Amino acid sequence: MEIRKRAELDALYPEAQKGIQYDSPELLLMRYIAENNTDGAMALFRDRRQFSDALPAADTPYGRFEGKEQIRAFAEGFINRFEADGLSILPKFQTRSGGRSVTEMVLNFEAGGMIDQVPMFVVADLGSMGTLEEVRLYCHSTFVPHLTPYRKPLFTPAHLEMGDPGLMTGAVKEYYTALHHMPGVDVERILRCMHPDCVFGGYALYNGQEPEKGLEALRRVYTGMSSYIPFKVGMRYETLIDDGVTGVIEWVHVISDQGRELGRIAMSGIAAYMRGEDGRLISIRISDYAWMEKEIDWEQTGTTEEEARKINAVTAFPAGVGRKRQEML
Fold first, then answer.
1. How far separated are the first and last CA of the chain, in Å rounded?
2. pTM, whole model, 2 decimals?
3. pLDDT in tens, the chain (329 residues)
4. Residue 121: HSE in the Cβ half-sphere, 13 Å Cα cutoff
5. I want to staple 287 with a disulfide (CB 3.0 to 4.6 A). Which of 184, 195, 203, 220 is the partner?
C-alpha cells in the first residue's frame, strides 16, 4: 500500500533500535489490537492491580478506560477511532526500567487502500507474569480524527514545583538542569550535552523538510524556549524510565501567572532523550500539544476552561525552593 501520510518517526528513524523485546506486554497489546485479537489483549490485564484494589486502565489521547470491560471497549474500538479498516505496527525504540516499559512505534492505519502513519509512545506500568496494570498512549492530537488538543494532566503532583534533576543521570540530568531550573535557561550549557548531530523531532507528520539537526539549529530552538521556560511554563516529571541509553519522561506542566497570561494551560506530555556512544544526547523526541490552547474546543473536553486554568497553577517560580501552590485563582 502507498503511504499517504508519513510519520516523522519513520522518516527520521527507518530502522528499529536493536534489542526490542517483542513479547513486552505493551507491544503485545498493540499487536493483538492490530490483529483484532481482543481476547489476547484482555489476557494481559488482571481484574485488579496486584498490590491495590485499583482497576487496570488504558489512558489514551481521547479518553481513559478503567476496568476490563472498558479496556475491552478500548481494544475493540481502537482502529475505528482512527477511521481505519486495518492496522499494522512498526516498533522503533523500546526503553525498559524500574517496572515500566515504553515502546515508541509507528502505527500504520489502513484506509481506502492507503496508509496513514501515526507515531506513538505506548507506556506500560508492568505487573507480574507479563501483565499490564496500566498503559498510557501518547500521540499528537492532529493524528486522531475529531480530537481537540487538550490532554488533562494524567498525574496529580505532590508538589507544584519542577522535578528534582538529582533523580536523573548523565546528559539527561544536565539537560533538565540547564533548561528547567532558575534563574533561567542556559542555552550554551544545553548544547554542550548534545552530540553535534543531535536530531530534534519524531512525533509530527513528516513534511519532507530536514529535521532540526545540529547545534546551530538547536541553538535557535532552545533560545526560543528560553523566552517562557522556566518562569512561565515549568515541567514536573512524574515517571522516569531510563535504561542508561534512553531516558523517557512523562511530565505535566506547572503554569505561573505569567504563563497563563500567555494563554498556556497545564497538560500532560512525554519525551525521550537518547544518548549516543559518547554519552551526549543524539536524539530528542517530544510529544505534546504545546501552543495549541487557542484551538481547544472546551465542549469536547469534559473540563471547562476555567477549571483547566486552575490545574497546576502557581503565582510564580521564584529562585530557590519552597514554591507555594496557589489553591485558588
1. 53
2. 0.94
3. 899 999 999 999 999 999 999 999 999 999 999 999 999 999 999 999 999 999 999 999 999 999 999 999 999 999 999 999 999 999 999 999 999 999 999 999 999 999 999 999 999 999 999 999 999 999 999 999 999 999 999 999 988 888 888 999 999 999 999 998 767 899 999 999 999 999 999 999 999 888 899 999 999 999 999 999 988 999 999 999 999 999 999 999 999 999 999 999 999 999 999 999 999 999 999 999 999 999 999 999 999 999 999 999 999 876 543 233 233 23
4. 30
5. 203
